[in-house]
Specification:
The protein is an alpha/beta fold and 269 residues long. It has helices spanning 2-12, 17-22, 26-38, 81-84, 88-107, 125-137, 151-154, 158-168, 187-192, 212-227, 240-249; strands at residues 42-51, 54-68, 74-76, 113-117, 145-150, 174-180, 197-200, 231-234, 253-254. The chain contains eleven helices and nine strands. The longest helix is centred in the middle third of the chain and has 20 residues, at 88-107. It is globular.
């Protein structure tokens, strides 16, 4: 148990000097993140997404962007992403995540990987160049790449996102709607944006075995996903009881610390 707690603390960046600095102000965050980008202190942490009824089977990994502080401590995205998302620096983060993800896919031909991006990067020339160049390097790479876009981000530029989907779907790339249920969604966008996966917000997994309201919400998400032909992933699964309930409700895949921590160097990668 202590080992697991220690691993989680390391992933969460607890006690890191940079983590403390990031708490000070948005300006401070931007400066620190810009320095990390310049010095290429960016990594992906790989977290498994498992099949709900066969949790020993990994469906794919999510690549979660991390910063390393000058001492090598890991800084999770939640400590900086909100401050940088609306800036050009946010596009730099998306470019770095995509570039690292493409290299991982090329090195590991059995890997299937989801990479997070903001919908604001859809029209960003460098991000598009990186993606097209990566697809050109290896035939079939797109079949193993999932682009993961948060619900709130997807709703900002649905028309641009629809165009990107139309361009990339023939190349095999899949799209995941991240954090579904966390904010306002216009149902017409679910009709117009053909996502392949719905990732149900972690708040609905929390204590779902005992919380009737969360059971109702998960069931409603599942009904919507089925109508729009999307696979479902329950995020934030922390206990065996939650995993069992979610599988029984009909969720396709599970993700969370109970199933596996994000790791910079997971076994096999």
């Amino acid at each position: 148990m202590k080992d697991a707690q220690g691993a989680r603390a390391m992933e969460d960046g607890l006690g890191s000097p940079l983590s403390a600095a990031l708490a000070e102000s948005d300006g401070r965050i931007l400066d620190r993140v810009a320095e990390a980008v310049r010095q290429r202190r960016l990594r992906l942490a790989y977290q498994p997404v498992v099949v709900a009824r066969r949790p020993s089977r990994i469906g794919f990994h999510e690549g979660l962007i991390r910063l390393l502080d000058p001492g090598g401590q890991v800084i999770p995205a939640r400590d900086f992403i909100a401050a940088v998302e609306n800036h050009a620096l946010g596009r730099d983060i998306d470019c770095a995540a995509l570039a690292i993800g493409i290299e991982a896919l090329i090195r590991h031909p059995t890997l299937r990987l989801s990479v997070n991006m903001s919908a604001r990067s859809v029209g960003w020339p460098r991000w598009l160049r990186l993606l097209r160049a990566g697809l050109a390097r290896e035939a079939g790479l797109g079949d193993r790449l999932i682009l993961e876009i948060s619900q709130s981000s997807a709703m900002t530029v649905p028309e641009l996102l629809a165009g990107l989907m139309a361009e990339l779907r023939p190349k095999g790339i899949a799209f995941a709607l991240d954090g579904f249920g966390a904010g306002l969604t216009h149902l017409r966008h679910l009709r117009d944006l053909p996502f392949d996966l719905m990732k149900i917000d972690a708040a609905f997994s929390r204590d779902v075995a005992a919380q009737a309201d969360n059971q109702v919400m998960v069931s409603a998400c599942l009904a919507l996903a089925r109508e729009f032909d999307m696979l479902t992933v329950a995020q934030g699964v922390e206990t065996a009881a939650e995993a069992e309930w979610l599988a029984a409700l009909g969720v396709d895949c599970l993700q969370g610390h109970h199933l596996g921590l994000p790791k910079l160097y997971p076994q096999g990668l």
